[in-house]
C-alpha cells in the first residue's frame, strides 16, 4: 500500500498514522519528496482492506498495491483451470456451447429443444427452472418441477445441465439435479449464497452483475473459492450503460482481461447481453474471436410463444447454422468446438 | 400498448399479430398512416408483459402505455403513504433522521452511538448486524448478536431500529428484533427475499440497486406490496456511473421523480452514496431541499477504527452540528425534523 | 408519433393539443381505450422534432414513430455504401486496415512506420497531426507540419492517409493533404464542423463520441450527409462506462446494430477503445467477427518513447503477426483483408 | 509518481526503467517489499504526463501523485475566486441566478423574458444565439442576430448576458456583445476553443461535458487559465447515466467536491440536467443547499411554443415563485440571492 500525505501534514499526523500501521503489524518506509511525502507500507496489504486510512489527518490518498484476492489470481495459479462438468471439460482448447431455453416450460418442449441443440453440437443444456423476473406479474418459473424436466432431458440426451439458483434453500435440489449451478447476475453479490455454493465441489457458473466491475467479479469468485470450491466459471453477460439500443452492452474486453488476471474459464452469454436474437450470432462469433472458453445461447423451438425472453431466442435451425459458423471462427483462432 | 409495423409488413403479418393479440384477450384498433401502420392494443396491457411481440414478423417496435405496476402508483393511491415505525411516522411533514454506525461492533459502542444520535435529534437508529462485503476477507458483521446489541440500544434509548437483512432464513430474527427491515442495494432484485418480507406487515426500507432504474425500484416495491405488505419506504443511495471521484453518484433527481410517481416515502442515504464523510453534510442538506422524507446517516464515535466504512462516518459532534443545519433547510422547504 | 393522454385529461386538453398539431400540418386519429386515450399523429413526424408536446396539459407521454434521420437509413438506401478512398474501397467485402502512429512525430519515424504497416498489409495510413489532449501540458501535435509528413509518407508508400481535424479553419489543409478527414469522438457533436466537412465530397471518418448513443452518432452522420457529402464512415471506438479496467468499453454490439440501421461502412478502433496494446489483438479479431468493415490500429516502432498513447501501440512485428491472424478470422466470416 | 513492479521483474527491467526516468530528469527511490518492489519518483511528476511508463517491461502499475493541473487548484490559490461579470460578483456569498430562454427567438420575446426574470430577481440574462442541436433538422439558432437581441435586452434591463459560443470564428462577436462566454458541454474538450477564450479576460462559463469526469473538467479549465484568463466559472449540468427517467443525471456531489478541489465558482444548471420543468424547482433548491454559487435556469413566456427545450422551461410566474423559495434555502445555508 502507498499512502501519500498532504503538503500540510504535520509530524504529529505522520506519527499517528505510522503508529496505527504498526499496531496492525505493518512495516513502513517513508520517502520525503519535494512536493509530497510518501509512506510505503510493506507486506501483505490485504489485511488493511476496510481500514479507513484515508480519514487519518494529513492523508491525501491511499493506493493498494496487491490485488485484494488470492485464489482466483494468475499469480497464485499460472495454468488455466479446466473444470470437469460431468465429462465435458470447460477451459481447455475446446470451446463449450451451453444452449437451451431461457425458462423451462413443459417437459416435451424442454426435451425437444435439448435434442435439437445436442444434434447441432451443443454439449451442455441450459434452462431456467427458477426465474428472476423484474415484475411480480411475469412468469416466475416452474421451480423444482423445472429441475425435474431438465434432469429428464439430460437422461434422454446425455447433456449435462446448467440452471440458475435463486435461493440457498434450494441448494439440495441443485446438488442433486444440476451439473452446474448458475449464480445469476443479480446474485453475484449475494454473499451468503456464494459461501454456500462454495462449500461443495459442484461446478458454479458465476455471472457478472450488470454493473459489477471486473474486480468485484473476481472477489465474488474468491468468496466461492475461499470456501473450498475450485470449480468456478466466470460469465460475461453484458453491463448496464447509457445505450438504449440493446438490453445491455456486451463487454468483450472483459474476456482477454479476465484471461490475463485469472486462471478460471470465461464464458460469454450473448443472448442475455443483447436481448435481441439478431445480435446473438455476430456477438457469439466475436466472443470466440476474443478468446472466450464457452458460450451460453438461448434456443427455443417457438420464440413467439416463449414464456420468457422470446426476443433473444434462436430457432433451432438458426442455431444449427450458427454452430457451423462458430466452428470456423474457433478454428481461425486455433481452437475448436 | 402501441405496436408499429415495418413499412414492408404484409397483410399476413398483420393478421398473424392480431390473431395472437386476440388469443391473449386484447382488443385492437389499426391506424394506417402514410409511412407506418399502427396497432393500438386497448385494455390493460400489463397482461402482455413478457410477451415477445417484437419478434413477430413485420413488427418494428412495441411501446407499452401503462406502467407495469399498480399498487405503488400515485394513480392507485393519490395521498402520501405514512408508515408507522414504532410510533415514528415516516412520510409525513416531519423529516425522519435514521443514524448510527455502519456495522454493529461492540455493545457499549453501539449503545454509546445510539445515545449520541438520540441526543442530537435522530429518531431511528441504524446499524448493520449482517454486512454484505465485497471481499471475503473483510469483516462480515456480528450477525444475530449484532441484532441483540441493537435491541439493547433500543431499550436504552427508545429509538426504533433499522437493520439490513441478507438472507431470508434470518427473517424470524428481524421480525422479532428490528423495527424496520432494510433490503439493501445488492438485494433489491432478490425477488425471493422481496416476496418473503412482503408476507408480513413489518416496515421495509428498500434501497435502490446501484444500477437499478427508477422503474426497477418501483417494480421491486411492487413485489413486496403485491404480497400484502404496504409499509414500504424507498431509499436512494447513489448509482454507479463513470465518475471515480466518489463511491457512487447520488441521484437526487430521483427524489422528486419518485414523489410524483409513487405515494411511498423516499429516504436518502448520503453516507453510502458518497463514501466520504466530507460530502455527507452538503448532500444531506441537498436531499432535504429536494424533498426527501428522511435520511440515513452513518455516525461513529471513532471513525478511524470503525470496522466498516469509517471513511464515510461522521463523528457525533459533527452530526449534532449537521442536525442544526438540517433543521434550517427543512424549515426553508416548509418541513421540520 | 403516438401521444398518450393522462386519465384525467379533459376534452379541453385534447382540443388544445389537436389544434396545435393541426396548426403544424398534422393529421390525427384518436383512439379511446378503457385506461387511456391515444392520439396517433399521421404523416412525417420529423417536423415535430423539438416541439415540446409533452408540456401540453393532459399529455402523459410522446413517442416518435419514425427515426429522426433519413439519408443515413437503410430504409432510404438498401444497399451498402462503398466509399472510395483514393482507390481503396471501404464498405465492400474486403476489410480495410488503417494503421500507423497515434501522433505524427518526426518525418523519418512516420515514413518508417508507414513502410512497416504497408508491408504487413495495411491499406490506409493513420496518423495524428493535430492532437486533442486532455491536459494542456501534454504534447499537442505538430499541426500542419504533421500533415506534410503524412503526405510525404503517402508519396513513399502509396498509402492514402486518414488524419483528425480539430478546427474547421484547418479544413483547407486537410482537403489538400489528407484522403480521409477524421472527425474525432470529442467533435462528434461539433455541429459546425460537421456542416463544413459536409460541404465537400472528401471521405469523412466519423468517430462515435464516448458517451454518444447509436442514434446520436447517426444524427451526426446525417448532419454531414444533409450537406451533400455521402462519403461517411462510422467508427466505434469505445464508450465510457463504470469499468475502470480499460480506458473505454468497446461496444461491439454497435457493429451489427449499425449495419442493420444504416448503409454506411462501420470501422472499429480497438486501440483507443482499450488503451492497452495487449487487448488490441483480441478485440481486433472480435471486431471482424462481429462484422466490422475495417479497423484503425495504432502502430509505433518504439512505443516506450511515443509522444502519445504509447500504451496502446503495437510494435510492427506484433502488427504483422496480427494481420496474419486477422486474415484467418476474416475468412471465417466470409471476407478477406 | 509511484511505480509498482511485477514480482517477476528482472534487475535489467528495473535498470531500464530507472535510466528512462533519469533521462527525463527524475530522481527515484526504490523500496523492496516482500511482495513487490516500489519505485517512488520524486519531484513534479506532471512532466511525466503522457509518458507510457506502463509499457516498460516489468512494470505492473503507475500511479501519479500530483494532480495534473496547477492553476485551478486550491493548493495554488486558497481563497475563492470571485469573478466580476459587469458588476455582478460570481463566487462570493451572494448566489447568482442566470435566467432566460433556451434559444433567442424574437426581439420582443427576448426583451420580455429579460424584463420578467429581472423583476423576479435574476441578475444575469441567459440566452442561446447559436444552438447545438442533435438533429440537423432542428432549429439551429439565430446566430449573430440573436446576440444583437440579447444586447438589446441588456440595454433595456441592465442584466449582463451569458451566451454559448460554438465556433471560435465567432469569438469577436462574443467579446463585443456578451458579458460571459459559455463553452457548452459538447465543447468542454474542444481544446482549440478553450485556448482561444483563454487568450482574453472575458469571463467564461465552462460546462461539464455530459460524460466528463471532475478531473477532465478541471483540466479543461486549466487549458483556459494556462492561456492567461483567470475568469473561469464551472458548471455542473448533468451527466449521462443508464437512468432514462430524466434527460441527464444531475451530479450534485460535484458541487462540494469541486469547491474543495478548486477555487473557481461552481454554477448548476438544473434545467438542462433534468430536461423537465417539474424537476427544476426541487433541483435548484438542492443545488443551493449543496453549496452552488449560482444557477442557470430556463424561463420562457410560452413554453408550449418555444423553439428549443420548451419541456424544461419555467413560466415567469413559476420562476418568480421559485426565486422566493430559493431565497429561503440560501438563507438556511448562510447565503443570500
From TrEMBL, chains A, B, C, D:
EC number: 2.5.1.54
Gene3D superfamilies associated with the record: Aldolase class I (3.20.20.70), Phospho-2-dehydro-3-deoxyheptonate aldolase, domain 1 (3.30.70.1140)
Bilayer-spanning residue ranges: none
Molecular function as annotated in GO: 3-deoxy-7-phosphoheptulonate synthase activity; aldehyde-lyase activity
DAHP synthetase I/KDSA domain ranges (all copies): 90-329
Domain DAHP synthase ferredoxin-like: 1-66
GO BP terms: aromatic amino acid family biosynthetic process
Protein keywords: Transferase
Signal peptide (from-to): none
Enzyme category, top tier: transferase
Protein name: 3-deoxy-7-phosphoheptulonate synthase
Organism listed in the record: Candidatus Nitrospira neomarina
Gene giving rise to this polypeptide: aroF
